[in-house]
What we know:
This protein has helices at residues 7-26, 36-48, 53-70. The chain is an all-alpha fold. The termini are far apart.
Amino acid sequence: MKKEDTPMRIARRNYEERNKELRKKTNAQFSTFIPRSDYDEINEFLKKNNITKVELIYQGYEALKEMINKK
């Protein structure tokens, strides 16, 4: 069942529709699967250390670049 339209929902929908193409051009998403046990372990580690998934990706990327450049 669809939720009732409210002025806020209508405004949000209009905003999303107007900005959809811009978001697609400026952002991307990694759509990948990993084993659930690894996912849970990583999420627990991130939560415990107050690290976002975005930080994990950027830091991992920088570390891999540095490691490869040293070879």
